[in-house]
Design a protein that fits this description.
The protein has 604 residues and is an alpha/beta fold. The protein folds into 2 domains: 62-201 and 437-533 and 562-603, FAD/NAD(P)-binding domain; 207-280 and 338-431, FAD/NAD(P)-binding domain. The protein contains 20 helices and 22 strands. The radius of gyration is 24 Å and the shape is globular. It binds NADPH dihydro-nicotinamide-adenine-dinucleotide phosphate. NADPH dihydro-nicotinamide-adenine-dinucleotide phosphate binds at residues 27, 113-115, 199, 205, 207, 247-253, 255, 270, 272-273, 383, 404, 408-409, 432-435, 551-552. InterPro entries: FAD-binding_Monooxygenases (IPR050775), FAD/NAD-bd_sf (IPR036188), FAD/NAD-binding_dom (IPR023753).
């Protein structure tokens, strides 16, 4: 069968399905996620923070506090802000970086910008009175906004920067968490909120010979401007006489490569799987539009976007960009059966990916390079990218795409990178190889959590997670986790983070008001929540999936065992998950939480 739509070339869904399957099979590997290594051991230097002066010291802090928040990125800042708004003053924020920002502290690579519209992505715009300067703000502006939030909500006095949590132990006599850090701090907290981020533990490909490379190398989340020159806006003048290699072509590389291509003497882009590159169409903020905004505008816009990208068409599409286009008019709304709806969505996906491939042909002059840059998989198998200069960069004479045909780089030598037996000599090698997503939870956190009776969370979750709302886990009283495990998921992830922050602040506020000393999920509530998650997995249409090309959305294509399935998120869509949290709070009965009350007056 050939599917056609007015004005478009025809395509055969069967042929595309076969091609997608072949491309997937090329990329499957027995080692799955184990192909990556972290920054420990011989790679420890990769983890150094290039943005702070070396030699920072401070006296250790020993104190009682009401809430410790682990992480000073958007999640931690939103939690602290919502707590401050609820009147909770006694807060400590422990953050590895030298400032607030999380992702936007670490990711300062050239070209970094948000790929979800800044008016919905950057939090607390109405509260801070700030309007981003562009539809897709650059990293520097987003980082500055994090600092603005820190100042406005008086979060700096709560922060312990350049500090990593070393461990957390529940003291059942004191009814407190004892949080220790790598700077000798000892914080005795009634509550701990873990807002450790989702994409924060960088990974390196475990390519043979990687440790033998003698040139300069770094990961994109620790960009070395001292070596490259320039800054987040580009102008990498010290690369003018350098041969540079970059490994990876995901969302990060797509933003950095145009700047590397513009500055390096020679750039080799080592590709395993091409990204889909839609149009970006960034624009400066329209002052006339700003004048039309009324109170509540940001929340309305956030909800409108999340509805559309959860497959709920809206009367108006306020954001109107590449993301909403993916979900626009996929025909499923007119279908009369679920099977027909699924078929319509599939055809729409083929059609929109054909457009993505046609865009490559239109922009890349060399036909062989163009062919290699075309993604052959379903659109949501990998994070869709949007960029107006990336593809054109491959027309530069100093830029060469080295396509590994799905196999990845073969070997790294002291002087270069080997693909299909050929060595490409480089002075500098940049890893745009992403972050751990499906590895074990406490491994990504970097510390274990020992709850009631000293039971480690690593052990408790060895066969998979058990939670209520992805936030509470039995045996770990007064611990509130922000993660994707059995929790909500969103393309605009900050939407979920803010709802988690409001939820956690509500719970802590209620404990204070009602004289509750500890809260802990019941076994029954965890079981019921798991059944809810399973129900959504059965009907969910989401990212990744077993038929997808390997990547972090589908655990690198490895089969999902019982443990991995229990790490899954709520698959019924962003708004549905948020509604569940709203309804739970509105009921006011703290359902599913076992509570204990203080014998006398509540302490703190
Ligand atoms: P990704 O995990 O998306 O990309 C890693 C890249 O490294 C992939 O292209 C991968 O290929 C490649 N790779 C891994 N091993 C090898 C190897 N042995 N040989 C060759 N290539 C290899 O990481 P990113 O940092 O790009 O993005 C992570 C996420 O961060 C995004 O998905 C997005 O959610 C977020 N992000 C958001 C941005 C924004 O808002 N502006 C910007 C950047 C990132 P393969 O695909 O075959 O595995």
């Amino acid at each position: 069968m050939n599917a056609t739509k007015k004005g478009e070339a025809s395509f055969s869904p069967e042929a595309l399905r076969d091609k997608y399957r072949l491309e997937r099979e090329k990329r499957l590997r027995a080692d799955g996620s184990a192909q990556y290594v972290d920054f420990s051991g011989v790679y420890a230097d990769f983890d150094k923070d290039p943005y702070v002066e070396p030699g920072f010291t401070r006296p250790a802090v020993r104190e009682k506090t009401e809430v410790v928040i682990v992480g000073g990125g958007f999640g931690g800042m939103l939690a602290a802000t919502r707590l401050r708004q609820a009147g909770v003053d006694s807060i400590r924020i422990v953050e590895k970086g030298g400032d607030f920002g999380g992702t936007w502290y670490w990711n300062r690579y050239p070209g970094a910008a948000c790929d979800v519209e800044s008016y919905i992505y950057m939090p607390l715009l109405e509260e801070t009175g700030y309007i981003p300067t562009e539809k897709y703000a650059k990293a520097t502006e987003i980082f500055a906004h994090c600092q603005r939030i820190g100042r406005q909500f008086d979060l700096y006095r709560a922060a312990l920067f350049q500090t990593s949590v070393a461990g957390m132990d529940w003291d059942d006599d004191a009814r407190r968490w004892i949080v220790t850090t790598d700077r000798g701090d000892r914080l005795a907290a009634r509550f701990v909120i873990i807002a450790g981020g989702v994409l924060h533990k960088a990974k390196l490909p475990g390519i043979p010979g990687i440790e033998t490379f003698k040139g300069h190398s770094f990961h994109t989340s620790r960009w070395d401007y001292a070596y490259t020159g320039g800054g987040p806006m580009g102008g990498l003048d010290r690369l003018a006489d350098k041969r540079v290699g970059i490994i990876g072509t995901g969302a990060t590389a797509v933003q950095a490569i145009p700047h590397l291509g513009a500055s390096a003497k020679q750039l080799y882009v080592f590709q395993r799987t091409p990204s889909s590159i839609g149009a970006r169409n960034n624009q400066p903020t329209d002052e006339a539009w700003v004048k039309t905004l009324r109170p509540g505008w940001q929340h309305e816009r956030i909800v409108n976007f999340s509805a559309i990208v959860s497959g709920r068409p809206q009367e108006v599409d306020l954001v109107r960009d590449g993301w909403t286009y993916i979900f626009e008019d996929d025909g499923s709304a007119r279908a009369t059966t679920p099977e027909e709806a699924a078929q319509q969505r599939l055809l729409s996906d083929f059609r929109k990916m054909e457009e993505i491939r046609a865009r490559v042909d239109a922009l890349v002059k060399d036909p062989a390079t163009a062919e290699a840059l075309k993604p052959y998989y379903y659109q949501l198998c990998k994070r869709p990218c949007f960029h107006d200069e990336y593809l054109d960069t491959f027309n530069r004479p100093n830029v060469q795409l080295v396509d590994t045909e799905g196999k990845g780089v073969e070997r790294i030598t002291p002087t270069g990178v080997v693909v299909k037996g050929k060595e490409y000599p480089v002075d500098c090698l940049i890893y745009a190889s992403g972050f751990e997503v499906s590895s074990e939870y406490t491994r990504r956190l970097g510390f274990d959590i020992r709850g009631r009776g000293g039971k480690s969370l690593r052990d408790s979750w060895a066969e998979g997670a058990s939670t209520l709302h992805g936030m509470h886990s039995r045996g770990y009283p007064n611990l509130l986790m922000f993660s994707t495990t059995q929790s909500g998921w969103a393309i605009n992830f900050v939407h979920i983070l803010d709802e988690q922050a409001k939820h956690a602040a509500y719970i802590i506020e209620q404990c204070r008001e009602r004289g509750i000393e500890t809260i802990e999920a019941t076994e029954q509530a965890q079981q019921q929540w798991w059944e809810v998650i399973l129900g959504t997995l059965a009907r969910g249409v989401g990212f990744g999936g077993p038929e997808c090309t390997p990547g972090y959305y589908n655990n690198e294509g490895a089969a999902f065992g019982p443990r991995e399935i229990r790490m899954a998120g709520y698959a019924g869509g962003t708004l549905e998950f948020i509604q569940i949290l709203h309804d739970w709070r509105n009921s006011g009965d703290l359902a599913g939480l076992e509570v204990t009350r203080a014998a006398a007056t509540p302490n703190m």
